[in-house]
Amino acid sequence: MKLAENVVMLDVAVPRGEREMLMHPTLAWDEAHLVLFDTGIPGSGKYFAEAISAVGKRAEDLTDIILTHQDVDHIGGARELLKRAPQAKIYAHEVDTPFIEGTETPTKLAQVLAAGTTGPRLDFLQKGFEASYLPVDVQLKDGELLDFAGGIETIFTPGHTPGHAAFYLKTAKIMVCGDAANVADGVLRGSNPAMTWNMEKAEESLEKIKSYDLAGAICYHSGYLKF
Ligand SMILES: [Zn+2]
User: Fold this and answer.
1) Looking only at Cα atoms, what is the longest distance across the chain?
2) How far is CA 11 from CA 2, 17, 21, 182, 218, in A?
3) What are the angstrom distances between the C-alpha of 204 and each of 49, 93, 165, 189, 208?
4) Does 84 score more than 90 pLDDT?
5) Radius of gyration of the chain (CA)
6) pTM over 0.70
7) Neighbours of ion ligand 1 (CB under 5 A)
8) CA pair distance 223, 112, nearest whole angstrom
9) Is the predicted pLDDT of residue 18 greater than 90, yes or no?
10) How far is CA 92 from the centre of its chain?
């Protein structure tokens, strides 16, 4: 879905077991940059590349891959996309970086291990993260501005994970929310409680997102809300 002159929300369906997982990564660009926000679960690379082709761009031309947070459905396709676009730089908020690099146990995996949960969920997370860990080239801080694709402001939005960040596309006035927000019944709501590390922080982060001058918000799992 084209949302602005240089912003598209992709709809990517990736097989996961017998079902499909639908995700809404964002693509933004200028003359010198092609920027992707989030990359899917491991195995998503080719589906993301197809979705990028379908809007007239090429995964091989990606220059910047921005990860909103450490979860496996956001970082898992990055290695595959880097094979197509080895020049691309990986960005994430500094707080989630050690989890993405695998130097600390990712938050959701740590929760499952602490709860003593076994079975498919543990298996999915353990194998998924093993296949996903990768180095972060650029660690971002709250308020940091990336001076391309119309200007991209980093907004620290912890709650869903400790180091979640949303990204404000300044020219388009569109918020890339990651999992810090969801669209439900035409309203912007916060992080899904069942998947949230810290609900209080998540609520504060939602308010922070809503305080911006927004033309629209892209939620990774629930799609676009126009304001
Ligand atoms: Zn997610």
Assistant:
1) 50
2) 11, 19, 10, 15, 11
3) 35, 17, 13, 12, 6
4) yes
5) 16
6) yes
7) 71, 73, 179
8) 27
9) no
10) 9
